[in-house]
Amino acid sequence: MSELQAIEIKAFVPARDIELSLQFYIDLGFTAERLSDDMAFLYVGRSSFLLQRFYVREHAENFMMHMLVPDVQAWWRRVVEQDIAAKYGVRALPPEDRPWGIRDFCLDDPTSVLWRIGEEIRAPAT
């Protein structure tokens, strides 16, 4: 019997206005490769997703992405320095320690997709 394997899993993130969303993610720090008029491949390091021209309000407003990073403050600085919230009219809540062991911040994209970008909280040395 062969062992099942996978190479990667990618989410298809909806975009009401693909050009606006694409620029949002570039400003946030992702690299983008246009695949077609309706889709783009976005990545940072080995983490990636597909941005697609697709919008159903109920779907977009209930879609959430989580990205684990080594330095949440660096990502938060990027949000602040790029003035992402004001530039795109989106919600950006500063980092907080969560009871599940993550320090993260919440950021909505222009389509209302909720991103939680965070790092693991290291337990104090004993």
Describe the structure.
The protein is of the alpha/beta class and 126 residues long. It has a single domain, classed as Roll (2,3-Dihydroxybiphenyl 1,2-Dioxygenase, domain 1), CATH 3.10.180.10. It has four helices and eight strands. It has helices spanning 18-28, 57-60, 72-81, 84-88, and strands spanning 12-15, 31-36, 39-44, 47-53, 64-68, 92-97, 102-108, 114-120. The protein has a four-stranded mixed beta sheet with strand order 1-4-3-2. It has a four-stranded mixed beta sheet with strand order 5-8-7-6, with helices on one face. A hairpin with a 4-residue loop joins strand 6 (92-97) and strand 7. The longest helix has 11 residues, at 18-28. The termini are far apart. The model has no long low-confidence stretch (mean pLDDT 95).
